[in-house]
Amino acid sequence: MALIELTDVTKIYPLGNQQVVAVNNFTLQIEAGEFCVLAGPSGSGKTTLLNLIGCLDQPTSGEIRLQGQDVGHAARKELAALRLHKIGFVFQAYNLIPVLTAAENAEFTLMLQGLDKAARRRRVEELFAELGLAGLEDRKPSDLSGGQQQRVAIARALASDPAVILADEPTASIDSQTSEELLALMERLNRESGVTFIVSSHDPLVMAHASRLIKLVDGHLETAQ
Amino acid sequence: MDLLALAWKNLWRNRRRTLITLAALSLSLMLIEAAHNLSFGVYRTMIDSGVRAGSGHLTIYRQGYLAARDEKLSFDPDSLADTITGFDGVAAVLPRLYLAALAQSSRESRGVLLTGIAPRIERRINPFLRKLPDAQMLTSLNGREAILGSRLLKELQLKPGNKFVVTLQDRSGDLVSEMFRVHGVVETGIKNVDKTLLLVGRERAGALAGIGHEIHELAIILNSPDAEATVYPRLQALISQFPGLEAVSWERAMPNLFNAIRLDYASQKFIFVIMLLIVTIGVVNTLLMSVMERFREFGIILAVGASAMRLRTLVLLEALLLGVVSMLLGTLLGSLATWYLQVVGIDMRSFIEQSLEFGGVVFDPVLRAQWDLLWMVQVAVYLLFLTLGAALYPAVKAGRINPVDAMRHH
Q: Which of A66, A88, B46, B60 sits CB 3.0–4.6 Å from A165 for a disulfide?
């Protein structure tokens, strides 16, 4: 059984009096442990596809399964629980909570899961050591560099041991050297810990790290290598 | 870090806005508590002064007397007065009789309210008689000395020591007259009272009216207004053994004072409600702005797995913290203001030269607050609930955020 299965998925958005087809009749399977990159120009449907896989949005038609569970037609509450326990997110603009420290940001999903403070701290210490963030636990996001903030975002995504991490343009806001370091880190996590990554990007640097490259054009699957 | 800690941190994101909201809430609470405690103190002083000079905290009448003021509705108080004096919480029992009469000097005549009193007990309790020099006080129940209101004395063109005649209709309907001598002069500050007050020993008045020992009113003064809760039921039980008598509280016996206080406090309450409403609108605005500003961030929180309920709880917790801090700060400031108003008070003498009359009672021109702790707690809790109520709409709005839309928002 594939980790993620999309079958004939279509997503149509209303835009004024018109309807925009963001994803059109899309079928795809992603296995556990893959490092997939969704590539394509702006407006090709990458982010919409990530939102659908990430249970943030629901398809107009078609079926989406995560670990065999139909998530395309689940209720809002169920979707929130799925996101909390099975999916990690890394966003283009880091999107850390500004009033929390780096460690508090990283343990946020664990707090939502109801873990006690000591267990949360242990997990965050492990992750910070692994991601090269040790010593930055008490810094606020505003006191961290872009690369450090994105690492904290990865720590937050990894903290709850999700089945898959979805990263939307994770290198778009950082310089190329930091991007290279970040991608190397994600690749290492994928290789050593077996975490599945689905990354959307049009950055050739990101595509170069892909174990599988999925190209989209106008909401269609162009090629999958 | 948990949701409460996050709520606390969120509250201080926009320090200035939070401080302004806190100040509005706390100062409103302070003003409401201080204003209420000042009124509470003034009302209590007025009631105390009113009941001591007037009907007492509790009063016994013949049934129907209160409504009709019919002089024929008198009763013998002797056995009752002794029993009631022994009740815990009772400071004094004052027998009085009231007779409509005509007072005549050699030059003028005026209608008066001849009031028969027990001078010794009355002097201990009645605030106007307390101020009277010993030499002017009535000495016996049966003497011919009289104490007159200051205006009456002037209108009758009398002086202390002068004689005058009182004429009234006795129980059998005959006109009877008696001569009295001006022994003391009282100035209550209440025009109507000072124009008609004529105090004499109650046995002399009873004899003149042909009713012997009988009286019209047995005024019961309590050690504290709070004693009414225990004394009143005992009094009711006792009165049930005396058919034709009734025991009433000061609110019924002195409806003018009671209604004046009620009306005054109702207008204050209206101002309190308006004040709280304005502050609540401010809180709604603060919380709503705070939610709208974090639209994108709330989208992220939802995206990483928080339920809508969790987000609503976060907004409500922020309001709860705002309410709790305002409640504590406002009550602290309210307590300081009450303390000041109790110790120093507001001296009205520099604004008003004449004595202050309200609801037929003269009150101290230095207004002083008294603590109404239960009320202070109640209004502080109301404020907390108002703040929580103000957060409902912003919380619902936060819970309805769609994470995909929110993350597109810049």
A: A88
